[in-house]
Amino acid sequence: MSPIPAQPSSPVVLAVEDLTVSFDGFRAVDQLNLYIDRNELRVIIGPNGAGKTTLLDLICGRTKATDGTIRFKDKELTKMPEHRIVHAGVGRKFQTPSIYENLTVFENLEISFPAGRSVFGALAFRRTQEVTDRINRVASEIQLRDRLDERAEYLSHGQKQWLEIGMLLMQEPELLMLDEPVAGMSVPERRQTAQLLRRICQNRSVIVIEHDMEFVRSIAHRVTVMHQGKVLAEGPMEQVQADPRVIEVYLGH
Amino acid sequence: MRAVKGLLANRETLALLILAALLFVVLPLGLDIFRLNLVGKYLTYAFVAVGLVLCWGYGGVLSLGQGVFFGLGGYCMAMFLKLEASDPESTKIQSTPGIPDFMDWNQLTGLPWFWEPFHSLTFSLVAMLVVPGVLAFIIGAAMFKRRVGGVYFAIITQAIAAILTILIIGQQGYTGGVNGMTDLRTLHGWDIRTDSARYVLYYLCGALLFVTIFVSRFVLRSKVGKLLLAMRDKEERVRFSGYDVASFKVFVFTLGSVFAAIGGALFTLQVGFMSPSFVGIVPSIEMVIFTAVGGRSSILGAIYGSLVVNWAKTFFSESFPQLWLFFMGGLFIAVVMFFPNGLAGVLEQHGGKLGQLWSRFVKRAAPRTPEPAPLQQETRT
User: Is B240 exposed, middle or buried (0-12, 13-18, 19+ CB in 10 A)?
Assistant: First the structure.
């Protein structure tokens, strides 16, 4: 299937073109094209091993591409080191909650505040009113306002997932990538997370990888189905669900 | 009165005061100058241990080659002292007067070019900090930018310690070889071997150690300290929060190495010589043991660790010279197995009762003033 071309009315934030990565000859991502618009919430689904996580790894620089380009606004990401990609405005949440267990919730959020990122900047970094305000705002957003002083290891699994999302919100990224954000969450937690995602994609683009179709239906603007490193189908949820090829490789199971 | 009480109720300040009292009052009053000079020598290792707390305890970077930086600092100091001791008058029996004795024994007829600037004390002091600092920076940058860490980094630093030892021993004519640089006498005309000089150097050593403590506390309390803890826990997350992880590791490793170098220079001044036996693998590992015994994530713990283990080393090697190495090995295994946080960890666990007794004592000492402020959390609005 050919990629959906960018609409002039909805400027493309992220353009992935002919992206390929091969590990010892195995092409985990193969000639992939993907365009994400401003303020879009895109969900990527697909069977295990389809290359979804690898795609996020490529965008955030964790894995280096063998071939192809990733353009984020005006910047080419494929040759940039990870921390520069973050500075450019890309945030990434990992599959298992990746937070600093031995720091407090407050400190977890504080570290993610985008200031004092060089060694000497960090030595000179001071906790200003602006930092505290932002932390309080984000903590309310992720419903951890009353747990700021607790060590992060004492949070529940779902709260850890939210904390990591909160850490990303502290960075105010223009593109937020979430790898299975509701994995291991209870049903009410999933509902709250869906609401959270709908709120936070108001002024940024979000890419979510998810398996839970209920959850996908509740949040997605558009869905991309990946299979064997390629895009198999793309479009609104109903259209994708009706696609016989998608049913064949993924939904049918 | 209230101010004094507040000060005594703050455990960290209290611990610093106790250390200061021990180093600056109790030990100088209680020990003769020979023993005090030995304590001064132990304290030079405490500089290395504090550096290891930063890069190993907090940064998670275990260096088994801190002897390299200790040695380079010590050698820079020794080169200056050696040149001063080798004036033409006191070396007139040599075939080439005016150069260090070991050069003469090795048939050198002139001072090598890289020795020339060490006639200047200022240059020597700068070199003592810059040479080890730059070497640590290069090693750190080369390793951490390539994401070499953990056991591989430890092995490489150990190899560097071995290389430097072999280099020093092999280049006898330039370095004094296996004997090192001996017979150091004066610093700018001031005899460093007299008792009064030893007192002065001991206090200088103690004062600089406190400077090191304050610098380390500043670093660890800043965002850098939190980032180091975060990196030890989830390095990837720190990287994807926009930090160049490698540059932070390079920074703590370099800072720790500069501390080691200051210790080395003070060692040369107090002991009166420097040799490859303080550079190689064994002394480097011993330095890690001092830190581990004291507590690798506690600055003060590491200082006490250096004092206690070195005191034990002197005691054992005076009484049972053959047993010392076995004892040291056993101690290390025991600490790693049973007290992973060292003495500081033991105190943390069982120190609660002691702390209660102390606060009761403080309260009783001044019953009219209100409750002492507890250990203050950084205030937040």
Answer: buried
